[in-house]
């Protein structure tokens, strides 16, 4: 079944999304503010990019000779890269950073310096994940091959009983997959299923852009440091590898906390491709927030802890999520719909680990 064959139920409480959108739109009109980036978001962009450039320049200029300090600089690059990916790249590739399309396009190119391809990101994340959240076979965010079982609709294998232990190691490999094989496999897969053509891209164009992005990435973050750093080339290679392990773990955990948890659903279409709920209600049933009152986490993860608001309004800059969250929550409650929110990062992490265990030990989970 392909994405063109899947249909949401438009008769499922249609007033909900209409009223919700009106209330959110009224918030911006009444307060005379833009739905896009404000000065705080621009300042945040400058700070995050600087947080990446400063340790990078210190490594290239050999400001420190101690391998341990240089190692910490590489870890700082990992943290800054994650922050840029969560906030700057994410908003731009959703068209939420600016009201000017070419600005979003240029800012979205920062994905190259994170290690991935904005072509694949837009298809995997914007088209598949945001449209068919937690739908097995459509949402690639819950498809980790046979090694991890992220949905009760996936086959349970004997070794999944240990996935709550080994998943964290695999999470750390996530961006390693980005910078090596994943983008190439995705381009070929998206070409075969027609998703590239929907984006107005040929296979040759997409592959060329992916190859160029990889050359740029490896040149700036690996080759140049290996040449200019006073550290042995092999130690730089090790630091680069550990940096990606840290980056992968940070990135994977943040994204998984919002969807692979016991309080979210994993709907499947019927034989005709029909899903039970409307698109907006589907998002509420498959998504959760975490640590909404933690300003540090909210700032670092680009509002992805307000995942419900992000899924319902992906074209709104995340800088506004905390303000519209109460509107979304109250409207959901009016219509008797769930609004799942965990009070802290720790509580969300705990239930995600529990979900990994449940999926690894229980063949059928009831939703």
Which sequence of SSEs, written as H and E, runs from N to C? HHHHHHHHHHHHEHHHEH
The tally of helices reads 16
What overall geometry do the principal axes of the alpha carbons give?
globular
Number of strands: 2
Helix vs. strand class: mainly alpha
Quick structural overview:
This protein has 367 residues and is mostly helical. It is 61% helix and 2% strand.
Please provide a written account of the structure.
The protein has 367 residues and is mainly alpha-helical. It is 61% helix and 2% strand. The protein contains 16 helices and two strands. It has helices at residues 14-30, 39-60, 67-93, 101-108, 111-114, 118-131, 163-171, 174-192, 195-198, 203-228, 233-256, 279-286, 295-300, 307-312, 321-334, 345-361; strands at residues 288-290, 340-342. A two-stranded parallel ribbon has the order 1-2. Helix 3 packs across helix 11 (233-256), helix 7 crosses helix 11 and helix 8 runs antiparallel to helix 10 (203-228). It is globular. The relative contact order is 0.15. The model has no long low-confidence stretch (mean pLDDT 94).
